[in-house]
Amino acid sequence: MQAAELFEQMVKPSEVARRLRVSVKSAYQWHQLWRDGGMQALASRGPSGSRCRLSPRCLEKLATYLEEGPDAHGWVEDQVWTASRVATLIGRKFHVSYSVSGATRLMHRLGFSPQVPARRVAERDEQAVSARGR
């Protein structure tokens, strides 16, 4: 709304950009919108981006599943929730496809963070490793 007030005062878009610390291109786009539709045209339309494909109830269930741990859902080799596993879990439980990055964002939204499992060499000699540490 600051931009609209400045435009009403006949401030040029380049000066609006400087004052509001935005790109000149954005200021010119705002100016065009303001000329065509007034202050209403500059009103926020809410957050951008795609909407969450899981309902609030499904998000609660997902949080419960994550709290139960990977073992409860078939990953017994370690107790780490990777983003890939969470994306798979969402597909299995809710029949909704999520990318790994989308699953990561969803986990953060629920207060979880994806973990990266430790990779070990198949031929690792535990005795030799522990002997070096002495």
Task: Please state the average pLDDT score.
Answer: 88
As an assembly, this protein is single chain
Gross morphology is elongated
Helix percent reads: 55-70%
Q: What structural class do helix, strand and pairing data support?
A: mainly alpha
Q: What is the number of helices?
A: 7
Please report the distance between the alpha carbons of the first and last residues. 67 Å
Q: Radius of gyration, rounded?
A: 25 Å
Which runs of at least 5 residues are low in confidence (pLDDT < 50)? Answer: none
- Could you spell the SSE succession in H and E letters? HHHHHHH
Quick structural overview:
The protein has seven helices and no strands. It has 134 residues and is mainly α.
Ordered list of secondary-structure elements with their pairings:
Layout: H1 2-8, H2 13-20, H3 24-41, H4 56-68, H5 83-94, H6 100-109, H7 126-132
Helix pairs in contact: 1-3, 2-3, 5-6
How would you sum up this structure, described in words?
The chain has 134 residues and is mostly helical. It is built from seven helices and no strands. The longest helix is centred in the first third of the chain and has 18 residues, at 24-41. The model has no long low-confidence stretch (mean pLDDT 88).
